[in-house]
Write a structure and sequence with these properties.
By secondary structure, this protein is α/β, with parallel strands linked by helices. Helix content is 34%, strand content 22%.
């Protein structure tokens, strides 16, 4: 059996899967990020470590399994986090997580076009290279920095004693060149980052090492089992859903909404809306790494005191498409669509006394879907093949949210039997590292069973077209405030 771990923003999730990658047991543990000031977002890595052993134990209990039954494990999780550690692997500062955009000054004056052409990513303060530079410039004990880690590579190092990351994770750093498939000396110079301060690079499904004695104490599994290199959740999620070939728009409705599609070639989006990353089964995942989407719903749920998401959905479903001209921009932590603008902020526009909580709920659901529409349209213009949407993450359980996306795009939405696929994608990598499958494509082939399909309703397409146009007009009208 195999253990797959997902280090999420709001929880650590664990699945125990058998040799056919059927989930036998699962468990999760909740925690939260902190926001010390506007634009900053942090998380203490000890939260992940503290959650590890008890969550694995509960997943094992749910599976009716013992630690001795586990043959390998893998870690996946949040991308774009950065942790500076000393020579004892002790964090010198909380992890600057994906939402953190404090490092704006660190990218000023850099050749953004050349960086994009080499890396396939947008030069943005959310990416690790900017955060590394900020930590070097601002930590009072910066001379003690031994390594820069990311949530996945940090935990793998703690478990095995080896500092390694995969190509997908490396391709998010702004330091990795797609053509050479390695860290680029010119990019390292641009950000003033020493190569020896970064982990080595290997394939996601390869073995990072075996579980050390200390690692065994951390997670409660037997020392000596294989630990895969692992990768970020933008990649474990589609892998766990069986995505290994072009044709589907992957829409991950989690705290952040990640939207992308597979393509055989490393297309670079010169408009800067999409990024191109190495993908574990081969080819490239061309994506927008996401805006606060499920997180915006959580914010609204708490703000308006909805009992739960089911109540939010039910009220939203009483409102007609377009929310009677109420529009929400999903930019609570900066805009990621239709453009990347770190200083942009979310807003409602069009409120009248006739609008109530249901209108606001539906406006947030629609606003996030419009951002997805921006990504879909850009992929289409770049020649990326898309014939259906695959909805993943917790938001895929909302029939209304999936229906909105089908109706506004005219594409069918497929909802897999398993929608929370990130930890399953990690378990898949563990199985490959253990040699049960010869490679990632062979392991992916057995996954992705569809629970149901949501067909588009063409009768409301015109209403969504009008609302989509209002969303773009609002974004442009607010530009002077960004």
């Amino acid at each position: 059996m195999f253990v797959g771990i997902d280090i999420g923003t709001q929880s650590l999730k664990v699945v125990v899967a058998d040799a056919a990658l059927h989930i036998a047991g699962q468990a999760s543990a909740s925690y939260q990020p902190t926001f010390p000031q506007p634009g900053w977002a942090e998380q203490d890595p000890s939260l992940w470590e503290t959650a590890l052993a008890p969550t694995i134990a509960r997943a094992l209990d749910a599976a009716g399994a013992r630690p001795a039954d586990i043959g390998a494990m893998a870690v996946g999780g949040q991308l774009d986090g950065c942790i500076a550690v000393d020579e004892n692997l002790k964090p010198l500062h909380p992890c600057l997580i994906w939402m953190d955009r404090r490092a704006g000054q660190e990218i000023e004056g850099l050749p953004h076009g050349e960086i994009r052409d080499r890396t396939g990513v947008v030069t943005d303060p959310s990416h690790p290279a900017a955060k590394m530079r900020w930590l070097q410039n601002n930590l009072p004990d910066g001379e003690r920095i031994k390594l820069f880690h990311f949530p996945v590579s940090y935990l793998v190092h703690r478990l095995t004693g080896n500092a390694v990351m995969d190509h997908g994770l490396a391709s998010t750093t702004m330091l990795y060149a797609l053509q050479s498939r390695d860290l680029d000396p010119w990019l390292l110079d641009q950000f003033a980052i020493a190569r020896n301060r970064l982990p080595a690079i290997a394939d996601a499904g390869s073995c990072a090492g075996t579980l050390s004695r200390h690692g065994a104490e951390l997670c409660g599994l037997p020392a000596g089992i294989a630990v895969a290199v692992g990768t970020g959740d933008d990649f474990t999620t589609p892998l766990g859903a069986g995505l290994a070939a072009p044709g589907k728009l992957v829409c991950v409705l989690g705290t952040a909404e990640v939207v992308g599609a597979l393509h055989p070639e490393p297309i670079i989006d010169q408009a800067g809306l999409l990024e191109t990353h190495a993908y574990g089964s081969g080819g490239y995942f061309i994506e927008n790494p996401g805006w606060l989407s499920g997180g915006a719903l959580t914010w609204l749920r708490d703000l308006l005191k909805f009992k739960d998401f089911a109540e939010l959905d039910a009220l939203a479903d009483t409102v007609t498409p377009g929310c009677e001209a109420l529009t929400f921009l999903p930019a609570l932590n900066g805009a990621m669509a239709p453009e990347w603008i770190a200083s942009a902020r979310g807003c409602f526009y069009g409120l009248t006394p006739a609008h109530g909580p249901g209108h606001m709920a539906r406006a947030v659901l629609e606003g996030a879907a419009f951002a997805m529409g921006d990504v879909r349209n850009r992929l289409d213009s770049l020649g990326v093949d898309i014939n259906a949407i695959v909805a993943l993450g917790g938001g895929a359980r909302s029939r209304l949210w999936t229906q909105i996306r089908a109706d506004m795009t005219g594409l069918p939405v497929e909802v897999p039997t398993v929608t929370d696929t990130a930890p399953l994608g990690s378990a898949l990598l563990a199985a490959v590292a253990a040699g049960v499958f010869p490679d990632v494509p062979a392991a992916v082939a057995g996954l992705g069973a569809v629970s149901h399909r949501v067909a588009p309703n063409s009768a409301v397409k015109a209403q969504y077209d009008d609302a989509f146009a209002r969303y773009h007009l609002l974004f442009e009208s607010l530009r002077p405030l960004y």
